């Protein structure tokens, strides 16, 4: 089984690329999906969030009010760190379980979508890293237009992540998403062929106890 990490800064098009890879045969494990699951009502993570920031981050049904929480954590790097410390361990646990399940099923290519892959130093967990990238101005426009978020808040969300140039230098494959959906399909076709040919390094049995 080949295990790839897929990442990219906010509004780069990670989810779209993941969907395209799924259509070509990849098994997708998306951290954004897992992060929503781990904060559903009744979960330990949501209880910890409510304890930390109060019921103002919950809606009338007791579910997480993401917009209210976002306004808090993107104003303060320390608060964002606390949120990540609450959510990420549960996400990692679920992702590990899903990867092992895919391995047992005999899946050929598994792609884990992880927005903060570089920031959290997860690179050594994968055979290779795929980065989806788009110009900063385009990503800002997408956040404001598609997510209905104020430009000032969107700029804070972008600034909270590692600059894309640093990620490009460390990625094994880069998907350029600066044009049309048709152009992106061609990019994904190109990357998919590379993933199919990617060779997994053999296990060094001399260092295995």
Short descriptors:
209 residues, alpha/beta, Rossmann fold, five-stranded parallel sheet, 5 strands, globular, disordered C terminus
Structural class, please?
alpha/beta
CATH class descriptor name of the domain at 2-35 and 94-199: Alpha Beta
Assembly type of the chains comes to: single chain
Beta-strand share of residues: 5-15%
The main pleated sheet reads as:
5 strands, parallel
| Helix-residue proportion | 40-55%
Beta strand count = 5
So, CATH architecture of the domain at 2-35 and 94-199?
3-Layer(aba) Sandwich
* Terminal residue distance: 22 Å
| Low-pLDDT segments | 203-209
Strand order in the sheet with the most strands? 2-3-1-4-5
What is the rounded Rg?
18 Å
The CATH superfamily name of the domain at 2-35 and 94-199 is P-loop containing nucleotide triphosphate hydrolases
User: How many DSSP H or I helices?
Assistant: 9
Output mean pLDDT.
92
SSE sequence, one letter per element: EHEHHHHEEHHHEH
Overall, the morphology is: globular
């Amino acid at each position: 089984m080949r295990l790839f990490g897929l990442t990219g800064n906010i509004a780069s098009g990670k989810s779209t690329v993941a969907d395209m890879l799924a259509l070509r045969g990849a098994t997708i494990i998306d951290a954004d999906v897992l992060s929503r699951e781990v904060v559903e009502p009744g979960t330990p993570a949501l209880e910890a969030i409510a304890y930390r920031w109060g019921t103002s981050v919950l809606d009338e049904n007791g579910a997480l009010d993401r917009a209210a929480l976002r306004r808090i954590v993107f104003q303060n790097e320390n608060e964002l760190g606390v949120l990540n410390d609450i959510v990420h361990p549960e996400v990692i646990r679920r992702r590990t379980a899903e990867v092992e399940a895919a391995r047992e099923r005999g899946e050929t290519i598994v792609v884990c979508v992880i927005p903060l892959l570089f920031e959290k130093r997860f690179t050594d967990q994968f055979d290779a890293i795929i980065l989806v990238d788009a110009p900063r101005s385009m990503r800002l426009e997408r956040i404001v237009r598609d997510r209905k978020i104020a430009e000032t808040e969107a700029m804070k969300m972008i600034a909270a992540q590692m600059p894309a140039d640093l990620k490009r230098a460390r990625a094994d494959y880069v998907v350029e998403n600066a044009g049309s959906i048709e152009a992106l399909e061609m990019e994904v076709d190109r990357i998919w062929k590379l993933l199919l040919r990617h060779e997994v390094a053999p296990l060094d049995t001399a260092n295995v106890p």
